[in-house]
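HUMAN: Spend a minute on the protein record below and explain its fold to me.
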Amino acid sequence: MGILALIPMIAPVVEKVLDYIPDPVEKAKAQAAAAQAQLDAMVQAAAAQTDINKVEAASNSVFVAGWRPFVGWCCGGAFAYQFVFQPFLGWIANLVVVNLGGTVPQLPTLDTSQLTTVLLGLLGLGAMRSYDKVQGTTKGH
């Protein structure tokens, strides 16, 4: 369990303790200190995750650094099928099969609602990668 998961459990306890401070000025100072500690913990956790991401991205192993490109290619391929190939394949199948006197097969469709969620997340990461390339901070993979 990470430190970020503990913050929602600790915050109510801190609020209860702060309720016992009678002086409004001291209470405000204590609340500000608690908020600052919470913010520091969140920043520290984000920095730790960033360090992990850097190590993963620097790896030459497909099993470490290759999962993002793999997921990107899967999402890109699925979108290409759903919005480019599937409509054209359906149109071509309709032309060919109807002219031969048969029935047109139903081509499979993909659930793009979940696919869109994953792809939008990847596009956000892709934008950061493009920014890194422009800044010259990538290794040129």
